Amino acid sequence: MDSIKDLVGKVLKELENPEKKSRQKLVEAWNQIAGPQIAVHTRPSLTEQGKLFVWVDTSTLAFELNQKYRQSLLKRTQAVLGEDKVREIYFRVGQLR
């Protein structure tokens, strides 16, 4: 069993993790980035390598986003997080969590 001191240290280290901060910022800003009509049907997921996976609830919407909105969503996300944090965007069909 960890002591309180060890637990507090671990929690503070997690809070300082810049990757986790970027992911949290992305989730919080997603409604503004994607717009409310798209955000309802999607969930963003950012990897440490700068890959943004957007989970979409229908294949039709995933296709439309990939064809029409790929670049604009990438640029909007880069504007919020920085170009160095988001390099690529991919759309995947799946269950939203």
Structural class: alpha+beta
What is the CATH architecture term? 2-Layer Sandwich
Distance linking N and C termini: 32 Å
Please bin the fraction of helical residues: 55-70%
Radius of gyration, whole Å: 16 Å
Mean pLDDT score: 89
Order of strands across the biggest sheet?
Answer: 1-2-3
In short:
The protein is α+β, with helices and mostly antiparallel strands. It has helices spanning 4-16, 18-34, 36-39, 59-81; strands at 42-46, 51-56, 88-93.
Task: Walk me through the structure.
This protein has 97 residues and is of the alpha+beta class. It has one domain: 2-Layer Sandwich (GMP Synthetase, Chain A, domain 3). It is 59% helix and 18% strand. It has four helices and three strands; from the N terminus they run αααββαβ. The protein has a three-stranded mixed β-sheet. Helix 4 links the parallel strand 2 and strand 3. The mean pLDDT is 89.
